[in-house]
């Protein structure tokens, strides 16, 4: 199975995005995507997967997972900022 990874940074955290071919067919491949977030000096989180989603291109799978990782980071950081000390 073809699988690729990409690494990005967002708001000081490292995001690892993985996408792979889920199924090959005569009309083209379908891809799956997942991501993990790593805090500075920490261990990566568990892989967040999208088992009900399949994508028509690896590029779209990667962009979707990256957007979801960024959304998750933003929500977590905003919740921390709004919580009382």
- The secondary-structure class comes to alpha+beta
How many structurally independent domains?
1
User: Strand count, sense and closure of the main sheet?
Assistant: 4 strands, antiparallel
Our estimate of the beta-strand percent is: 35-45%
Q: First CA to last CA: what distance? A: 48 Å
**Structural shape:** elongated
Mean pLDDT: 89
SSE pattern: EEEEH
Question: What key phrases describe this protein's structure?
Answer:
alpha+beta; four-stranded antiparallel beta sheet; 4 strands; elongated
Detailed description of the structure:
With 85 residues, this protein is of the alpha+beta class. The chain has one domain. 29% of the residues lie in helices and 35% in strands. It contains one helix and four strands; from the N terminus they run E-E-E-E-H. A hairpin with a 2-residue loop joins strand 1 and strand 2. The longest helix has 25 residues.
């Amino acid at each position: 199975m073809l699988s690729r990874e990409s690494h990005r940074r967002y708001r000081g955290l490292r995001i690892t995005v993985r996408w792979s071919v889920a199924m090959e067919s005569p009309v083209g491949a379908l891809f799956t995507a997942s991501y993990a977030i790593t805090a500075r000096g920490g261990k990566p989180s568990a892989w967040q997967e999208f088992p009900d989603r399949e994508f028509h291109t690896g590029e779209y799978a990667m962009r979707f997972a990256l957007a979801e990782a960024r959304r998750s980071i933003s929500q977590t950081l905003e919740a921390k900022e709004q919580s009382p000390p």
